[in-house]
Amino acid sequence: MQAWGPVVLRLAVGVVFIAHGAQKLFGFGGGGGPSDTAAFFAQLGLTPAYPLALVVGLVEFLCGLLLVGGAFTGVSAALLTATMVVAVWKVHAPNGFFLNWTNAPGQGHGYEFHLVLLGALVALILSGPGALSVDARRLRSAESLAAGRARLRQG
After folding, report:
1. Peptide bond into 48 cis (omega under 30)
2. Contact status, residue 13 vs residue 124, Cβ threshold 8 Å
3. pLDDT per position as a tens digit, 55-96
4. DSSP string, 26-64
5. pTM, rounded to two decimals
6. Which of 22, 25, 99, 108 could staple 57 via S-S, CB 3.0–4.6 A?
7. Torsion of CA 69, 52, 34, 68, to 10 degrees
8. How far apart (Å, rounded) are the C-alpha atoms in residues 141 and 155?
9. Which CA distances in Å does 38 have to 21, 24, 73?
10. DSSP code of 85?
């Protein structure tokens, strides 16, 4: 059953990042799309804002898809970790730890949600994708090829 833990984790985390990337790229679910994301990035002092908005949206969307499929899990999780570190540093750390559950005006969300995402991403980097993944299938294929070559060299 241990091989299935990372599957559940990468599916949940992947879906979260797909949704957030879709907000940035396509305005999905009430997101602002690239122009509003770029305006927000410019407000934070992140420049060039529009290209960064596209890059962050693409990283979140595409790496989320890769996590769901279990493909390039370590690289995808590392790229997403970098985006989360910047999000905590530039946006959420000044607001403290907790989310703004009451949606009090003028108060942003803290970094507790992002800390959970960072923990999940690091766990995936350390554990790998688990069962039902492109990475696991690729590894099995490489091991089979290596074993076949070894048999040929011996015989």
Report:
1. yes
2. yes
3. 999 999 999 999 999 999 999 999 999 999 999 999 999 999
4. H-GGG--HHHHHHHHHHHHT-SSHHHHHHHHHHHHHHHH
5. 0.90
6. 25
7. 10
8. 21
9. 13, 9, 28
10. H
